[in-house]
Design brief:
heterodimer; A: 360 residues; 60s Ribosomal Protein L30, Chain: A; Phosphoribosyl-aminoimidazole Synthetase, Chain A, domain 2; 7-stranded mixed β-sheet; 28% helix; globular; B: 377 residues; alpha/beta; Rossmann fold
Chain lengths: 360, 377
């Protein structure tokens, strides 16, 4: 195998294309070559979906040498631009709450507060805005994480796509918890909290150019109580948690493999996919491994605690269909490999650009 | 999923794999070509190679519509979008095909071209109806599979006398491409191939009869197969048997969909709207006589090439790109210097890296681990 080499971003002549927002390799490259160099610091460099911050007053501002409390701050922010705004099983409002709550929870933290920033396009119906914000309020109350600050800007007609929402979340993590994308170890078990692809297919089913009938609902949900239930049975054994949103299960596993410098081996037969999702993907030429989820998590944990964690997941309403899908292996190439149901083997690569349907 | 899972059954696959292993002659090297990108994709996605003995080699043919689309045709589409300001509609994968000057339709879209992905030719027609003030062009690509739907929308546009809809036709034909490969093999420009896994969806349209010529004149067995992985394994077993027995026949594994005559209604509408071009340039194969379709003079009004006075300019492939040799089966992806380094699915240099049906992309996306030591299960 030749040494891997990635062609650098062509910043002088290049333009943002939709692939840069799809959550795959192009998104990762944009972050690494454009955002990171400009904003570089150890928190960003960790490469997780949220950042862990030291808790307490910075030493130089503190007049007394107060002891720092036992814990850390975790913060995450997330922009939400789903089209259509209302989809089966949810809408932009609840998604904006769930997405950020989940990013904070995936570092093992308890989400505490949210802020929200709205960019509205001139002409957007107030009734729709109210529906979105009420849904946000409902999701925030249900999660027990209040929206404590906000901002609204309006752009001229044609300069936005109805409404964009950015949310920021803050959470607290007790001292001693070490869960992030760099902690996967060879031999660890890979667990998945439920069937993949529900959100992506539910959203696709309502796109104007594609409408098809399905009873499928988005899986959008706040996962922090599931995380707490898992931590309760194995606080030390859980190494990585992440929600496989854009780019799907495949891309998320690749991100973790790269961060932790390991390979992964998963089993296709063990990955739960609803028949409706499988059928829609079959028809549209998509692969469920790359379809977005908004209410699922991947847990990578020590093999000894895998059964206990899996049992805790299955006992929680959001993890009833949880499954043990594979394990972490040694691999200098950081490949995610999959044993197919057909008893062959293949690489499961990053999403490249946007997932586009095949022609034949 | 009913009617799908049956054709992906791992146990049946093991059984077929054992049969193939038992029946191959150990000293013989079987070189089989799957013509279609759909088969290439199935082989890679399900790991079919792992179920074949080492002396059965699959050569990935040129039957991937985006892979054989030459740079010059994509340049014409970009010209339509950026210079003529049309709404350009096309199928998904086409957006990433590399064109001249490091462009692609995806990049042209980022520069302001109104380029839209459609799932069906009918969606393009619908866009034209909804935007009477704009010119809408459907950039039509594909083999005989995607040709009848293009023919139908052209006929419909003519019936409605839609003034703002036209088609840029890049439809190509399967049998002339197979002939080009076989003639190339005689001239030693192409790999020696012993038998073909014949197209699935193409054959539903054209039937199995058009392949009889290859079995008869070139003495090559052809087994038409469906796109599911068990279809492919079964077809390989049937080819191994024909080769072992010295037969060269057209056999049909895909009887659940393919008949000898194909689909006469689809053939009729194609013949009504299209006629054969004298010659067409294919990536990898060069100019192949009578290998593609153009819009008939009766429908010239709906031909984007005429409406916008587009001229074709042939553009050579990137110097280091081996797509041509790979499409002809004489090289494998890893023989290419830029495979997996400069040329990746994010930045495809050659068209074989664009679609997951292309051999480079299929190999890159699904098969790279074959180059590294296997980790024990």
């Amino acid at each position: 195998m030749k040494k891997s080499y990635v062609r650098p971003l062509d910043i002088r002549r290049g333009h943002v294309d939709l692939g840069h927002g799809a959550g795959g390799k192009a998104s990762a490259q944009l972050i690494e070559e454009l955002f990171l160099p400009a904003l570089d610091n150890p928190f960003l460099r960790a490469g997780d979906d949220a950042a862990v911050l030291p808790f307490g007053m910075p030493r130089e501002l503190s007049s007394t040498a107060a002891e720092s409390p036992a814990g850390e701050l975790v913060t995450a922010c997330d922009g939400h631009v789903v089209s259509p705004i209302f989809f089966p099983g949810g809408d932009l409002g609840c998604l904006a709450v769930h997405g950020t709550v989940n990013d904070v929870a995936m570092l093992g933290a308890r989400p505490l507060y949210l802020t929200a920033s709205f960019i509205l396009e001139e002409g957007f119906p107030l009734a729709d805005l109210q529906r979105i914000v009420q849904s946000m309020g409902h999701a925030a109350r249900e999660a027990g994480v209040p929206v404590v600050a906000g901002d609204t800007k309006v752009v001229e007609r044609g300069k936005g796509d109805g409404v964009f929402i950015s949310t920021c979340g803050i959470g607290w993590r007790p001292a001693g918890v070490r869960i992030d994308g760099r902690q996967a170890r060879v031999g660890d078990a890979i667990l998945l909290s439920g069937p993949i692809g529900d959100h992506g297919v539910a959203v696709l089913s309502t796109r104007e150019s594609l409408s098809f009938e399905t009873t499928l609902q988005s899986d959008t949900a706040a996962l922090h109580t599931l995380v707490q239930a898992m931590l309760a049975v194995a606080a030390d054994g859980i190494h990585v948690l992440r929600d496989p949103t854009r780019g799907g299960l495949a891309t998320t596993l690749n991100e973790i493999a790269r961060q932790s410098a390991v390979g992964m081996r998963i089993s296709e037969a063990a990955i739960p996919v609803r028949p409706e999702v499988e059928a829609a993907c079959e028809l549209l030429g998509l692969d469920p491994l790359y379809v977005a989820n908004e209410g699922k998590l991947i847990a990578i944990c020590a093999a000894e605690v895998a059964d206990a964690v899996l049992a805790a997941m299955r006992a929680h309403p959001l993890g009833r269909e949880a499954a043990h899908i594979g394990r972490v292996i040694e691999d200098a190439h950081r490949f995610v490999q999959m044993d197919t149901r057909f008893s062959g083997r293949r690489v499961v690569d990053w999403l490249s650009g946007e997932q586009l349907p095949r022609i034949c | 999923m009913k009617y799908i899972d049956e054709f992906r059954d791992g146990q049946l696959a093991q059984h077929l794999s054992e049969r193939i292993a038992a029946e191959v002659r150990p000293a013989h090297h079987y070189r089989l070509m799957e013509f279609c990108g759909g088969h290439t994709h199935a082989i890679a996605r399900y790991g079919v190679i792992d179920l074949l003995p080492a002396n059965v080699r699959m050569i990935h043919g040129p039957g991937c519509p985006v892979c054989v689309l030459p740079i010059g045709r994509v340049d014409m589409a970009i010209e339509l979008a950026l210079e003529h300001g049309v709404i350009l509609c096309t199928y998904g994968d086409t957006l990433r095909v590399p064109a001249s000057a490091e462009m692609s339709l995806m990049k042209a879209k980022a520069r302001g071209g109104d380029i839209r992905m459609v799932y069906s030719a009918a969606d393009a027609l619908d866009l034209a109806r909804r935007h009477p003030e704009r010119q809408v062009v459907f950039f039509a690509i594909g083999f005989e599979t995607t040709t009848p739907p293009t023919a139908l929308v052209l006929r419909q546009a003519a019936r409605e006398a839609l003034p703002n809809f036209s088609v840029m036709c890049n439809h190509v034909l399967t049998p002339p491409a197979i002939r080009a490969i076989l003639d190339g093999a005689e001239a030693e420009e192409t790999a020696e191939i012993e038998g073909f896994v014949g197209p699935a969806h193409v054959s539903i349209v054209i039937g199995s009869d058009p392949y009889a010529h290859f079995a008869r004149e070139y003495r090559k067995p052809v087994v038409i197969a469906g796109f599911e992985p068990l279809d492919v394994l079964q077809a390989i077993l049937m080819l191994v048997r024909q080769i072992n027995e010295g037969r060269a026949e057209v056999e049909n594994e895909f009887t659940r969909a393919v008949t000898p005559q194909g689909n006469p209604a689809a053939q009729a509408v194609m013949a009504e709207v299209f006629t054969v071009r004298d010659s067409f340039e294919w990536r990898g194969l060069g100019s192949v006589p009578r290998s593609a379709l153009r819009i008939r003079d009766e429908y010239a009004h709906f031909d984007a090439e005429q409406r916008f006075h587009l001229g074709y300019r042939s553009v050579p492939d990137h110097k280091a790109c081996e797509c041509g040799a790979i499409l002809r089966g004489v090289k494998e992806p890893r023989d290419c210097r830029i495979f997996g380094t400069v040329c990746t699915p994010e930045n495809p240099v050659g068209s074989c890296m664009v679609s997951s049906e292309g051999s480079c992309a299929a190999y890159y996306t699904y098969g790279r681990f074959r180059d590294i030591p296997v980790v024990a299960a």
